[in-house]
Amino acid sequence: MKDLPEDVKGLIKHVKRIEIPREESIREWTLNDRIGRAKFGDVRENLVYIDLMWKESDEGTPYPVGLFRIDVQKLVELDYLYENSRGMRLKFLHDGNDT
User: Fold this and answer.
1) At CB < 8 A and 24+ separation, what contacts does 5-12 make?
2) What percentage of the chain carries pLDDT values higher than 90?
């Protein structure tokens, strides 16, 4: 995660599995370069943990990107995310330069 704006840096954090409270669930999302190099979805939680993977194609081997703690509510308050009828929309993008 490079070049995050200063007001976002503490809101998206790379974490280790041991740091996640047992009662929290972890979403598993996989970016797929064949489908627009992106993964998006709606979340309802104010705080979400996402285990992010990446693969080149449908048949490709998924590679770990990282496990992230995301303060969704704060990102909404700062206008980085928006709410819709299903929750808050998150989108991850693989820019092709390993970022």
Assistant:
1) 7/78, 8/75, 8/78, 8/80, 10/71, 11/70, 11/71, 11/74, 11/75, 11/78, 12/68, 12/69, 12/70, 12/71, 12/75
2) 25
- 29 and 52 in contact (C-beta within 8 Å)? yes
Residue-wise pLDDT for 51-75, tens only, equals 988 888 888 898 898 999 999 999 9
Is residue 19 included in any domain, yes or no? yes
**Domain hosting residue 54, numbered range:** 12-93
Residue 99: inside a domain: no
Task: Round to whole Å and give the CA distance between 23 and 72.
Answer: 18
Euclidean distance between CA atoms 50 and 67, whole angstroms: 6
80 inside domain: yes
Report if residue 3 sits inside a domain. no
Look at the chain and report how many structural domains it folds into. Answer: 1
